[in-house]
Structures are given as C-alpha cells and as structure tokens.
Amino acid sequence: MEQRKEMRIKRRVLSSLEDKPAIVVDMSQGGIKISMSRPPRNQSVDIKLQFGNKVITLKGDVRWITRVVSRQSSNNIGIAIREAPEEYYQLLSSPN
C-alpha cells in the first residue's frame, strides 16, 4: 500500500549522504529514498544531489532503513525532507 502523499519520481541520481557515495532510487516533495553500502550514523542528515555540474543540498531526517542482501549488500534509506532549495522542487516538476 502506498504510504506517501506525493507522487514518487523514479530517477537514478548520484548523491552523497554524510559525504559517502549513494544513489537516489526515488524522490518526492516530502521524501527521498537512497541506496548506499552503509547506513548513516545520525538521524539528521545532509544529502547532496549531483545534477550535471550542479549540486543541490537537502536536509532531512532518516525515517527507516532496510538492508538489501544481494551480491553487494546495500541499505535502502527513507529520508523525510526537512529543508530543500527551490531548485529541488523545480527538478521534480521537470520531465527529465
């Protein structure tokens, strides 16, 4: 059952969480799902998204972590966005 109020945008984006490499799985106005090898240490996190030559920084709070076991173990992390620049919301409304 869908728990988010906003529509999820599935878009693979290079990012970093606590200055460690991560990949965005999907995002919405209220939250973002990120995959990375190790979960963050803190609940309050800074997320840097790389779009071409531009970096957008978001502030958020970790809501859940799910460990994914495959050839390379990873963690899916659900983060509620607490603070984001207008560019992030413009990115969500752009076609690609």
Please describe what this structure looks like:
This protein is mainly beta and 96 residues long. The protein has a single domain, classed as predicted glycosyltransferase like domains (Thrombin, subunit H), CATH 2.40.10.220. It has one helix at 86-93, and strands at 9-17, 20-27, 31-36, 44-51, 54-68, 74-83. Strands 1-2-3-6-5-4 form a six-stranded antiparallel β-barrel. Strand 1 (9-17) and strand 2 form a beta hairpin.
Annotation keywords:
single chain, 96 residues, mainly beta, Thrombin, subunit H, 6-stranded antiparallel beta barrel, 1 helix, 58% strand, globular
Q: What percentage of amino acids are in beta strands?
A: over 45%
Number of strands: 6
Largest sheet descriptor: 6 strands, antiparallel, barrel
* SS summary, helix count: 1
The end-to-end distance, rounded to whole angstroms, is 26 Å
Secondary-structure-based class equals mainly beta
Q: What is the CATH class?
A: Mainly Beta
Mean pLDDT: 85
What fraction, in percent, of the residue positions are helical? under 10%
User: What is the approximate shape?
Assistant: globular
- Which consecutive residue ranges, at least 5 long each, have pLDDT under 50? none
Helix and strand pattern: EEEEEEH
CATH domain fold name? Thrombin, subunit H
